[in-house]
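Input structure tokens:
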């Protein structure tokens, strides 16, 4: 099988979608080559520069740089990605970010991965143009998919409910976690990372892009301001600005938290495991997470997690997470205090968290996706013949 994978909409490796794509690319290429198949990636020069270190022998199909712009990129993928995949001799097209970059009438078997449908559930997440794309074009594009993959059961339920796709048509293939990078680290390695980032006090970490309202930073700040943890721990925000920095900074000033909250911006990949392993607790309080990869990374590192009772987060953390109401700062504050002060809980997560995380590997995710791609990889002519004959 020759598989085409699109890189558009994956944030050049700098988000959860980017982590997903970065983990899959080398595994897909390796698995396909072992069976005589091949992988070709479709993207811009910027895309290929972002993933150069994991592409290996993957083929490269370059598309115009203007597609790096969200609206133009969405339009190109809707109308041209199927034709490009066919021109590259692909048997199957894999869309790893189908909830952002989908295709209409691709002309070859197509598998789309949906990470979340927050844009259907959170008013104000996107501007008017993107909202129109989401509400009117994405459902039509999803209808053309031969297989829909959801990264969690929660996302699968959202797809079934919001898009009217039958539940039995949705394949759940959970995200994995890199348990070689995210592990309990010895104090000296944690200290090195903390020194590089200027973190000289105990801290609670929220690794999430600055996006409002989805990532729920304002309620988290109010919870922190009301918590006992405010006096003993810094609140550290790690993630790029997605338009909410000014709003969040204003709330920090209003709550008089200027000396207690640190925003690190985007944290380099090599520093993130140490940053997570050094946290007293990790917050995962988004309003509609389709998976919540940082929560699983924290458990892999043996760190307590406070997770929102929303989206896929309860599903991801299981019994090891502290669940809170993400709409109630008071409830979030209680959970935060519990996470940083309960030594019995911390000991249990250190003991059980890494083994729990190892049950979800990226190899397993890759194999699940490939099995679905193989299942739909029937030449188009026989498929049409089967429809005509009623087979």
């Amino acid at each position: 099988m020759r598989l085409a994978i699109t890189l558009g909409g994956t944030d050049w490796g700098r988000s959860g979608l980017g982590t997903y794509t970065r983990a899959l690319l080398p595994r897909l290429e390796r698995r396909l080559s072992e069976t005589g198949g091949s992988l070709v990636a479709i993207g811009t020069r910027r895309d290929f520069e972002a993933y150069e270190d994991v592409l290996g022998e993957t083929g490269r199909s370059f598309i115009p740089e203007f597609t790096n712009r969200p609206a133009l990129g969405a339009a190109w993928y809707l109308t041209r990605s199927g034709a490009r995949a066919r021109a590259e001799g692909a048997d199957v097209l894999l869309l790893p970010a189908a909830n952002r970059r989908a295709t209409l009438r691709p002309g070859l078997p197509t598998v789309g991965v949906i990470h979340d449908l927050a844009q259907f559930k959170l008013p104000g997440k996107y501007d008017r143009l993107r909202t129109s794309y989401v509400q009117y074009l994405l459902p039509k594009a999803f209808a053309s998919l031969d297989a829909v993959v959801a990264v969690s059961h929660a996302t699968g339920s959202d797809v079934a409910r919001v898009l009217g796709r039958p539940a039995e048509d949705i394949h759940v293939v959970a995200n994995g976690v890199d348990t070689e990078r995210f592990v309990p680290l010895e104090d000296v390695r944690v200290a090195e990372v903390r020194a590089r980032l200027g973190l000289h006090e105990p801290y609670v970490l929220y690794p999430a892009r600055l996006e409002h309202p989805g990532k729920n930073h304002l309620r988290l700040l109010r919870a922190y301001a009301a918590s006992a943890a405010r006096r003993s721990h810094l609140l550290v925000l790690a993630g790029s600005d997605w338009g909410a920095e000014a709003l969040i900074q204003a709330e920090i000033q209003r709550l008089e938290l200027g000396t207690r909250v640190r925003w690190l911006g985007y944290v380099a990949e090599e520093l993130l495991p140490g940053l997570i392993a050094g946290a007293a607790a990790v917050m995962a309080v988004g309003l509609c997470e389709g998976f919540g990869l940082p929560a699983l990374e924290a458990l892999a590192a043996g760190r307590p997690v406070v997770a929102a009772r929303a989206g896929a987060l309860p599903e991801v953390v299981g019994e090891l997470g502290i669940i809170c109401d993400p709409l109630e700062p008071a409830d979030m504050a209680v959970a935060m205090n519990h996470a940083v002060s309960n030594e019995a809980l911390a000991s249990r997560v250190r003991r059980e968290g890494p083994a729990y995380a190892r049950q979800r590997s990226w190899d397993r995710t890759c194999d699940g996706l490939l099995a679905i791609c193989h299942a739909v990889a029937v030449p188009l002519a026989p498929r049409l013949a089967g429809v005509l004959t009623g087979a």
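The chain has a mean pLDDT of 92. The longest strand covers residues 38-43.
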